[in-house]
Amino acid sequence: MKKTTNMKNSLNIAIALLVAFTLVSCFNNNKPNYQYMPDMYESVGYETYGEYDVFENGQEAKLPVEGSIPRGYTPFDYENTNEDRALAKTELKNPFEITEDNINEGEELYTIYCAVCHGDKGDGQGILAEREKFLGIPSYADPARDITMGDIYFVETYGLNSMGSYASQVDHKERWQIAMYVMNLKAALNGTPGLLDNQKEMTSDSTEVATPEMEENKTKTEASNTSEEETN
Fold this sequence. Notes:
Cytochrome Bc1 Complex, Chain D, domain 2, about 0% strand, elongated, mainly alpha, single chain
């Protein structure tokens, strides 16, 4: 009985293998019998910029909508000309708050991208200047330069003379952070207060300090107002 059962199992396995082999042998890899998603098997290979009726106005590279701005891009309304550089020098203002964090970020970026030429102190004595790879790099304290943050940002964006543009290396905010730090270097070379010191001084000047005379006048005014209210 056991032997008969084993023979039946073997026969069933043999039949199953024969059926599977028959089905597989009928397949044609180049042309399957059933294509549930024919586009996946036989995709249309359009020629680049070819003329096809399925494309509106033909196949072409699509331009962005007029007036649109790429993500992460900040418009800069100054052309790379001496005239626009002069304008940027006087009217282009730093849109970011002057903080210790921003200045510290500017120092790190300056060390990476600028110090090799301009020097760690901004005196134009970077390692490339010392090796005479570039000559005549001016100090930030040079009176003839009279640099401003707007001027620095403009030069970082477009480059100047032997210095190329750094717009691809540092983004909009990073360029302003470098400009903040450069102004601090300029102040240090000239022996004048830095940006944060100037900011504190301006804040202090705008806050009126109460003197004893002012307090006395204030008391008299309050007393006079109180007396008038009682009379009324």
